[in-house]
Amino acid sequence: MLERVYAVKKIRVAPDAPFSIAQEVRSIEKVGLERARITGAPAGALVEAPDTVRVGRVLGGRLAVTEAACTTRGAVPFLFPARPYTARWGDLDLLTASLEVTALEAHAAGLLGVERFRLRFTGTRPVSPAMARYLATAVSTFARDHLGNEGAMASPLVREEAFRCLATAVLHAFPSTFLDRQSDALTQATVSDGVSRAVAFMEEDLAADIGLAQIAEAARMSPRGLQAAFRRELGTTPTAHLRGLRLEAVRTELLAADPAAGDSVEAVAARWGFVHRGRFAAAYRDRYRENPAATLRA
Fold first, then answer.
1. Could you read off the pLDDT of 82-92 as tens digits, one per residue?
2. Which has the closest alpha carbon to 32: 131, 112, 90, 104?
3. CA pair distance 54, 47, nearest whole angstrom
4. Fewer beta carbons within 10 angstroms: which end of the chain, N or C?
C-alpha cells in the first residue's frame, strides 16, 4: 500500500514490535489527497516519486525527511523532495496532497503565458508564513469543498477548477523556477513602465530645462536604474533620447520656418536647447543626413 500511494521502494520496521497503518486516499484527475495514520514501531523508507509533486503536513507524531543535509519536520506544510529521499517516522498522522508534475508544469506555463515550462522547486519550505497559511487553507478547501462534494466532482469543469486552485497555491508557496520567472516578468514590466513614464515626461516638458535627475524622478526609478533600463529597452540613454526628441522638434520647426521672415537655424536651435552651433550641426547631419540650413531652405 505504501508503495502504491507514496512510491515507497524499501521500508524498514523495527522487528518484534506492533505496527499498524490506516490509509485513506481520494483523488480526481491530476491531483489526490492522502491521509495516513501509522502507529507502533518507528520505521524508515526509501521513496522515489519523480512524476509527483507531493505536499505534506504532519498532523501528529514525528516525521523526518532527508535529502542531503536538508531536514523537514513539523506541522507547517512542506514539499517532499523531487529526487529519491529517505523518510523516518514514529506514530505518524500525515496529510499529503499529490499533483502530477506534467499537469503542474502545464498550469505554470499558462500562468506565465509561455508555451512550455520546466518546473524545478529550489526549496521545501514555504516562502513565508503567510504563504504557508494560504497553502494549508487551499489544501483544506480542496478536501472539504471539492473532494468532499461528490455532486460537484461530477462536473469536469469543477474538477479542473479544483486542480487549478490547489496547483496555483503550490506554485506560489514554495521557491521555484516558477517564482523566479514570475519575478523576472514583474521586474521587466516595472522597468517598461518606468521607461514609458520617462519618455512621456520628456515629451510633455521638451522645452523645459530638465536633466537625468528630473527624468528619473518622473519615472520613479534611480538615475542609474533608468539608464540601464533605457539601454535594455531602447538601446540608448535617457539624455540621448531627450536630445533626439529635441532634434525632431528643431527639424519640424525648420520645415515650417520662413527664412524671408527672418527665421534662422541658430534661433530655432537655441529654443530647443542647442547653443553650440558646431555640435548641433554635426548631430543634425548624423540624424537627418543633411545640414540644418538645407532643411530651413526647403
1. 888 888 888 88
2. 104
3. 12
4. C
Listed residue (177, 72, 84) closest to 122, CA to CA: 177
Q: How far is the CA of 179 from the CAs of 55, 182, 295, in angstroms?
A: 17, 5, 54
| Per-residue DSSP letter, 259 | G
What's 176's DSSP letter? Answer: B
Closest residue by Cα to residue 264 from 278, 254, 251: 254
Please report the pLDDT score of residue 209 as a whole number: 84
C-alpha cell at 66: 532527508
Task: Report whether 8 contacts 21 (CB < 8 A).
Answer: no
What confidence score (pLDDT) does residue 84 get? Answer: 85
Report the C-alpha gap between 41 and 38 in whole angstroms: 9
The predicted-structure confidence for 100-150, as pLDDT tens digits, reads as follows: 999 999 999 888 888 888 999 998 899 998 899 899 999 988 888 888 888
Q: Closest by alpha carbon to 80, among 92, 93, 97?
A: 97
Per residue in 212-261, pLDDT tens?
Answer: 889 999 988 888 888 888 888 888 899 999 999 999 999 888 888 888 78
Q: Is 28 helix (H, G, I), strand (E, B) or coil?
A: strand
End-to-end Cα distance, the chain: 89
Contact (CB, 8 A) for 178 and 171: yes
